[in-house]
C-alpha cells in the first residue's frame, strides 16, 4: 500500500535531514489518513491517487498565487513539493501519446461532442494525463 511506502520514505527523509521532503510526505500521509477516516475504510489505489492529485493541484495553485504576488521563494518551495508528490503518481503520458488517443477517439465518434470525447479519452488514460492538457488538445482537435 501507498501508506507503507510513505512511512518508509518519511523515515528515509528523517535520517537524511531532508526537511522539505519530510514535511511534504507528512502532509500527504496526513491527507491520506484523513480521507481514510472520512470514508471509514481503507482507500483503494484509485482513491489514493485522487488524494495525491488533489494535493498536487493545491501546490500548483499556490505556485500561481505566489508568483502573482511576487513571492518567488515561496513559489519555488511549492514547486519542489509538487515534484515530490509527482513521484507517487503514475508516469504521465507525453503530449504525442495524448494527441494520438484524442485523434483515434474523435475519428471513432465521427462528431464534435466535447463531453463524450473527453469522457472516453480520460477513461483510456486512467489518470496518466492531466485533465486540463487533454481538454486543451480535444478543443484544438474539435476546433472549439
UniProtKB/TrEMBL annotation:
It holds the Pfam family YqeY. SUPFAM superfamilies: GatB/YqeY motif. One of its GO terms (molecular function) is carbon-nitrogen ligase activity, with glutamine as amido-N-donor. InterPro entries: Asn/Gln_tRNA_amidoTrase-B-like (IPR003789), GatB_Yqey_C_2 (IPR023168), YqeY/Aim41 (IPR019004), YqeY/Aim41_N (IPR042184). This is Glutamyl-tRNA amidotransferase.
